[in-house]
Amino acid sequence: MNKKITLALAGLVGLAVSGIAGAVDTRARFMAANCSYCHGSDGKSHGAIPSLAGLEPGYFVQQMKGFRDGSRPATVMKKHASGYTDAEYEAMAKYFASIK
Amino acid sequence: MALNRRDFLKTSFGAAGLAATAGLAGCATAKTGSAGPKVVVVGAGFGGATFARYLKMWAPTAHVTLIEPNAQFTSCPFSNTVLAGINKMDDITLPYDNLKQVVDKFVPDTVTAIDTTKQTVTTAGGHTFAYDKLVLAGGIELLFDKVQGYDAEAQKTVMHAWKAGPQTATLRKQLEAMPDGGTFVMSVPMAPYRCPPGPYERACMVASYFKRAKPRSKIIILDGNPDIASKKPLFVAAWTKHFGYGTGNSMIEYRGNNQPRAVDARKMTVTTEFEDVKGDVINVVPPNRAAPVCGLAGVRDGSNGNWCTIDYRTFESKVVKNVHILGDSALTNFPKSGSVANNTGKMCAYALSEQFAGRQADPSPVVTNTCYSGTGMGTAFHVATVFRWDEATQSMVPPKDANGISSAESEIEWAYMESWAKNVWADTLGLPQSYNFTAKG
Known about the structure:
Chain A has 100 residues and is an all-alpha fold. Chain A has helices at residues 2-21, 26-34, 36-39, 57-69, 77-81, 86-97.
């Protein structure tokens, strides 16, 4: 019986944690995770591809716009930048900036 | 599945019951306390491993059981560099240790039965796992019976090397043993198949080895497709620049519409509709379909019963509830690449974590592919695409300018390809920032 109560509480803690997670922009977190196969988990890269973690948000957004309009030369990034909206650039920028 | 509080608690008790009774010998079990929805994942490749890891980050109370028969992860992407002699098998083989620490239960076993009514999965070891959500990430099945003579005996000498591992190592040994002036015959299956540019990259990589070590040798590509199926201008340019393609002295000969119909491992011939082709080393990749576990679950509903249709927003099967299909087994607009498997793993983890938290899955998801191919000559090139949900077609398609290939091969993209490999391996397996990769680009 005690075990059941403990586990029921664990379930409630689960709900509470989910509630807190609701405050996180989970869509931005997912879109940022889209980048990680190249830029590393949480934007921390191994090797030649630049890291994104901790970048200043204004810089991130400016670079994405530059890739999209061609003012910054790119290999893969023109295609990627063309797939997101300005609001999504902002959301991803905020997410990467929050990673220490 | 939008869980209300009552369902959630009910589910929690169900998971507790399982955790209490399923203390399995031989399982590397890191956590058993997660009392949330029971999620069983089959396959720890790019799709399944990524999904399991991200679900534990985004829905920590989910109880995740990951079933995988292989003791270590061997990467298909980059395995062509082993054929080139650039890397060794050890360089593309990575540990499951970090992943084992993240999931609730890691089961080194093979799935033998799936009951989608009772919602249970049974393994060869005789263990049964109940699930609220089942995620199938088993990769591909190779249809040897579609190539006459490609039986168990022939498979001892004719490699496919389309699942990286011992096959890759054996094919490399065969190439090393081949005399200078020999012929390497390789095949490309009819689309859809795993890794669309992979066969053409393989031709580059093997040619680069021949150019260095046995320059009088030849490669014949027998393609089941009418033409080069991926990155055609870039492969043609690379073959032309490095291997004499288009001249009388080309190292590579390409034959479209040449599906292998039969192999003879003793005579070392591959038979197409048109001819018998003799080789010193032959490498036949039979037609692909969704993994055997998809057959067990009855979810191979698409493309003449070969692949699995899914709802793009959740990756749930269109024919069986609570069964989700990731990576190569799914029938989608996405190429069957490591990057797509990795990202669709995250997409499914995102959708389920939203559902478990009582929210709707994202109604307009976005997912990406980036796929590099190496020439073996210190250069590489890419295809990159962003796919977004499109309400009009109820599908995921690239917006304007969000799809394309490199303008030309380049050295920087070879460096990016190496960096990509390390980052996707780390992202899939949860390898630490300090992990000492040995693969070379």
